[in-house]
Task: structure prediction
Amino acid sequence: MTASLDYLVALFGVTTGAHGRRLGSDEKELVLLLWQVVDLTNKKVGKVHEVFIKPNNLELTEQCTEETGITMENLTAAEPLEEVLQQFNRSLSNELNIGVDTSFCLCTFGQLHIRQVLHPEACNKNVTLPECFYSFFDLRKELKKCCPGSPDLHKLDLSDISKHLNLEDNAENNRFGVSDITATSNVILAIISEPYNHRFTDPERINHKFETGTCSKMEIIDDNTIVRARGLPWQSSDQDVARFFRGLNIAKGGAALCLNSQGRRNGEALVRFVNEEHRDLALQRHKHHMGNRYIEVYKATGEDFLKIAGGTSNEVAHFLSKENQVIVRMRGLPFTATTEEVLTFFGPKCPVTGGKEGILFVKYPDGRPTGDAFVSFACEEYAQNALKKHKDMLGKRYIELFRSTAAEVQQVLNRYTSVPLIPIAPAPIIPMLPQPFVCKTNMRDCIRMRGLPYAANIEDILHFLGEFTCDIRPHGVHMVLNQQGRPSGDAFIQMKSTDRAFLTSQRCHKRTMKDRYVEVFQCSAEEMNFVLLGGTLNRNGLSPPPCKLPCLSPPTYTTFPTQTAVISAEAAALYQQPVLLSPRALQPSTAYYPTSAQLYMNYSSYYPSNQLPSQLSTPLLLPPFPHPDHFPPARVQRLGTSSRRERRSINEILLLLLLCVNLLTPLGCPIVSYK
Result:
């Protein structure tokens, strides 16, 4: 705004909640709106207008009544917000005689009255704000411009600034709100007069709508402009995130919804604002509501945002180059689907922007389709018509349709098209087997800790145990991890004796660690092994790991009894006599059928020294090993023959297998059972 203004309208709002610097942080409704016109040309002020607003929730605390003087009768007889805004417009039109050349702008002391109160409440109540509420002057910033050598004015209130400018205190208008609006007008008159002669030329702007766009991975992003919103409904879009932060300016393409490992939304979003000031205002909306859910807002970094929204693909950049497009995600497409079939699926009621160029198929690095695609539409109406085709059939498959975002396109394409820098090596044919982790014993010389904070480390555990730390065996602290490799909240400690384990469980049970109480139980090494190898401890006793569940052979695989091995004299001469006289017993015919291809042992072991916690070394994480029961047992087909020569050959083969077992078992190789 370069042209000079004719009028400023000082504005002040009052809610039933907090005031001052915390105004709008508690999501309370607006109940009082005050304004006063300031004539910049003639340096005069108009009448103070004071209008009550009827809230949806008629609740008024005694503290609010004492501070503001507002009563329940005032709110009951008031008009709703939409009617008050219309009254505001009519009042300005009559008082200013608004014509073609008349210009005015709002002015508030700080950002909260408009950004944190008016815009969020109007959005929640589906009330359209007049155009004049999308630009305003922040009196604090204007004071800093005309008084650059003054102290930090952001930490001062109106009374302090009035004293700084040597303004007289008007004792007649001491009502809450009226005194503030009068002081605001007096400060405006002071800075437009001698010796300041300040001109209001550059107002604050509020975005009308959120603009979509792309973000490059090479872009430098300020960490002080990013927040993480957690707890979003799974069906929410970037527009819903922008509505939640209405009144604050989100950067172009700055709302990125996060996806989980399955490519579905996990209820989190990273939001990038235009500057740090708007980020700080966004943090004040922590635990504000989106529908019936409260949203948590935390600080985040630019690196976090780039991981979600950044991309380098030229194909994606071309697809997202058209601004203000509505994107719809298709899931469950046939692998043979073509662009023509997709265009036919949507039909003429929802034309795709650019025809074939408005469709982006998601593919693996080798070019195979994943069954996902993104489609862009020119307007909201076309997108809504397209979403009505949710679960319609394309060929022999039903198609799922979801509203999507530019950041989601980047995430999905990055996940499917990225190639790992280090290729994954295949598993060895005969793996190395770990030594027994803990000797199995029924002595209850261990303790189990349950309910640990997920961020707890070895130092926290040792500090929790206190004087019992000296009773821990070397290498005796074991933290249990879940299948995703994250802490499960459990840990096992090997103590030097059963007495010390019992005393530790009695003294440390339900002590607190980082605001959480931790349960401590006495247990044995055998119980600990069950958990460390994938089992569980519950009230019904021990539940073994899934790989340890025995399963009898299927009925189609008939077993035969072990026969006496008979070989020829020539074959017997090849082996030592003791081996032939005392062969190793064969394994039973019961087989183990694992539930998955590989078992990841869900434990990590830490090796504390006997020194103080401050002298501990970095914890060592044991790598996962596949269990021997995960390798299918070998089975020798029984030949249907009755020839003595053939039966003798079978016996020789069986004896050779037996000798291999005797020779390989001492070397640590897995024992192979046969049927």
